[in-house]
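testing teh design pipeline on a random one, pls ignore if ur not involved
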């Protein structure tokens, strides 16, 4: 029997699933990050190799594990130049004699794509629909029945990422400081940030953010403070959440208008940490989308992105 590999490579970890031709996951393995634009191609190769090794090791297969197809959905892979880099990585994988597998890959059975596509396919269970991914960053990606795709957002924390945890956290701290100055109305966020960092004064937030050289992930991790304040009824926090929802609805609407008809029946899958908040952001977003597009259904993921990568790999064997 032949098998396929589905790989989800992100900035924090790599997940690999080993699947058979009935879409059953036989093994699953994890390893470190594999965003080659951040950590380099060698470190990316090592993470993917380890994830594959771990996936095969967890599978109870007695015969030879012969890999017929592979899909790599990697963060930061979108341009033609990126595809060529990853093609070289796949060649290196096939030359690695230490992996407990044999390869039977043809060029048509190698799928290289960005992580938004595998999140869409895994989240919905098929390759048609829209994914609204908002965690540290944000991106909205859709694909229709004709294979046409459209992306909105995904421009990074400086140029975009509206509706992301990072932008919510920044807006929350900004609102707390404006409240302290007297430039905006009072908000519980002022005390919330003070308590979170055990600050004597909110002015000490400067030392935390600037002098400790905080990065995007550390700042994004503060978004739950805003979420909790909104869930507790704080007006300013709810305005921040509403603004985030408006941006995500606008981006999702842009994707729908670009590649679907207004009355299309489709699913929008929501992935990422922001949707797990206590302030009902998911329900608020879904209500706004359905009001504009009554035939759209907003869902949480059915499967993980690595499974979506496995499905895309399987599709190449059935053509």
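output:
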């Amino acid at each position: 029997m032949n098998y396929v590999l589905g790989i989800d490579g992100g900035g924090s970890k790599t997940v690999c699933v080993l699947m058979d031709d009935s879409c059953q996951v036989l093994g699953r393995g994890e390893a470190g990050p594999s965003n080659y634009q951040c950590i380099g191609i060698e470190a990316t190769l090592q993470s993917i190799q380890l994830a594959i090794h771990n996936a095969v090791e967890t599978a109870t297969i007695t015969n030879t594990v012969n890999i017929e197809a592979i899909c790599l959905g990697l963060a930061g892979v979108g341009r033609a130049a990126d595809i060529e880099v990853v093609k070289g990585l796949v060649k290196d994988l096939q030359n690695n004699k230490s992996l407990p597998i044999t390869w039977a890959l043809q060029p048509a059975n190698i799928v290289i794509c960005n992580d938004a596509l595998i999140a869409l396919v895994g989240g919905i269970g098929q390759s048609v629909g829209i994914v609204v991914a908002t965690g540290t960053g944000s991106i909205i990606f859709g694909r229709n029945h004709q294979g046409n795709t459209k992306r909105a957002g995904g421009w990074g924390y400086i140029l975009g990422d509206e509706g992301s945890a990072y932008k919510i956290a920044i807006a929350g701290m900004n609102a707390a400081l404006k409240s302290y100055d007297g430039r905006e109305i009072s908000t519980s966020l002022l005390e919330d940030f003070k308590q979170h960092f055990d600050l004597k004064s909110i002015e000490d937030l400067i030392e935390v953010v600037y002098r400790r050289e905080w990065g995007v992930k550390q700042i994004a991790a503060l978004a739950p403070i805003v979420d909790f304040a909104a869930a507790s009824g704080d007006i300013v926090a709810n305005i921040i959440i509403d603004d985030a929802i408006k941006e995500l609805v606008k981006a999702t609407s842009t994707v729908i208008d670009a590649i679907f008809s207004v009355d299309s029946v489709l699913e929008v899958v929501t992935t990422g940490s922001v949707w797990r908040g206590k302030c009902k952001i998911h329900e608020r977003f879904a209500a706004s989308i359905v009001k504009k597009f009554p035939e759209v259904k907003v869902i949480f993921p059915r499967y993980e992105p690595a499974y979506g990568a496995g499905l895309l790999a399987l599709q190449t064997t059935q053509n």
